[in-house]
Amino acid sequence: MNDCLVIIPTYNEIENVESIIRTVLSQHKFFHVLIIDDNSPDHTADKVIALQSEFSDRLFLEKRAKKAGLGTAYVHGFKWALENKYNYIFEMDADFSHNPADLEKLYNACHLGDADLAIGSRYVTGVNVVNWPLSRVLLSYFASVYVRFITGMKIHDATAGFVCYKRQVLESIHLDQIKFVGYAFQIEMKYRTFCKNFKISEVPIIFTDRTKGQSKMSNSIIVEAVFGVIALRLKRLVNTL
Length: 241
Prior knowledge:
- Residues 6-172 form the Glycosyltransferase 2-like domain.
- InterPro entries: DPM1-like, Glyco_trans_2-like, Nucleotide-diphossugar_trans.
- Helix content is 40%, strand content 17%.
- The chain is an alpha/beta fold.
- The radius of gyration is 17 Å and the shape is globular.
């Protein structure tokens, strides 16, 4: 049984899904891949099913009935990973904004280092973002500054979506209580990990904006993040987190 599972949520990623699967599965480190597809109209799931005949023991698919948000997709994947006894569980985008070659860096931070949660960080050594407009860079960077101020977490990239969790972290978090779905989901998971006193480390990466497909960013996701951070801190203060 392999101990590493890379969870990749998809919605209309037909242009990227085969390439990202093949690239992850071709890494020197042996990974399994779980695609969580939200019934993509472009038939992303059908492409995954076709590839399963080639990677029958390494590629898995969970197809949901409808688009239900990034956070719920990852929670679905986390539960699947725990049920199937994986020890290192990764989050990763389908669009190559996260470099599959960096997966092993995150793994090493947890397996060889002392991290319980390793974050592929865009900002721990400056601003390492390629092809984003300045407005998007500033939004993301100052969102993390805001999160540090409100929560007290010493994390430079609180909204990062490229991470590795040790199994015991996810086992300790009440996954059914996770509330948020966008940027705030990423913040909430890190904050719950922080509140459980697990070790969090940041691994520097270079983030490259997608070249194929469409971004899922929206104003509602930004608003959720801004107010969600305050809600999380208040819950912590009254011991309900």
